[in-house]
Amino acid sequence: MTLTRRDLLALAAALPLTAILWPQSARAQSLPRILCFGDSLTAGYGLAPGEGLVPRLSDWLVASGRPAQLIDGGLSGDTTYGGRVRIEVSMRRHRPDAVIVELGGNDMLRGWQPDAGEDNLDAILTTAGTGGRPLLLVGIHAPAGDPAWRRDWGQIWPRLAERHGALLLPDLYAPFAAVAPEARGPLLLRDGVHPSATGVRMLVDHLGPVAADLVARTG
User: Fold this and answer.
1) What is the pTM of this model?
2) H helices then E strands: how many in the chain?
3) What is the Cα–Cα distance from 204 to 213, expressed in whole angstroms?
4) Are 50 and 14 in contact (CB under 8 A)?
5) Pick the CATH number of 31-217 from 3.40.710.10, 3.40.50.1110, 3.40.50.1820, 1.10.3720.10
């Protein structure tokens, strides 16, 4: 078969694109797969695409030299019980190398008891960590309420992390607590609960170093 001049020009134009795209695709496949399993905080509730916790954390890891393929397993409104129901399917579907678990906020907003939340999270971490898979447990402070109830919720995160050999971020919202209440407006959406795009960036700076440690554990 004889190639025409037009054929040769088309082939020459296509070669650089192939040379660029193939290494990028191969590189993405070689990155560790991290399942971010959580609720609306993970899912980026109320935010534009690219502004949520998962894409911002992905950017942070790339900039820090610990790139990973992050999988958004966030479900708005989910509880620890809901997570317990869906974790096995998520693990089979995504086959991650490591898992970040961020659940419990909706349990607390409903006034549920910490022992039930701990039992559900224990089951989630057991499934997610099968085979020694690295884990990161992300806690969050309890809202206003009975001091003993809040204390009991706060104690489950380190206890579970130790039990499962997981990395721990005890309180995702700790950076907000360091800001005076009257100055927190720009960090939150109008509901006063979920982070704004500005707030997400602050949370990612807090979460990023521990997430980078998780990526390192997959090596």
Assistant:
1) 0.87
2) 9, 5
3) 14
4) no
5) 3.40.50.1110
The pLDDT tens digits for 42-86 are 999 999 999 999 999 999 999 999 999 999 999 999 999 999 999
Low-confidence ranges of the chain (pLDDT < 50): 1-3, 5, 7-26
CA–CA dist 39, 101 (Å, integer)? 9
Quick one: which H or E segment has residue 73?
A: strand 69-74
Report in angstroms the alpha-carbon separations of 152 from 8, 123, 201. Answer: 71, 19, 29
Copy the structure tokens of residue 196: 């704004």
Distances in Å between the Cα of 125 and the Cα atoms of 6, 31, 56, 205 are 59, 23, 24, 24
Provide the pLDDT for residue 8. 37
- The residue ranges of every structural domain in the chain are 31-217
Of the candidates 209, 167, 204, 215, the residue with the CA atom closest to the CA atom of residue 69: 215
- The Cα–Cα gap between 157 and 174 comes to 14
Backbone dihedral angles phi then psi of residue 168, each to the nearest 5 degrees:
-135, 135
Beta strand 69-74 pairing with 33-38? parallel
Q: Are 149 and 142 in contact (CB under 8 A)?
A: yes
Nearest Cα to Cα of residue 206 among 141, 151, 160:
141
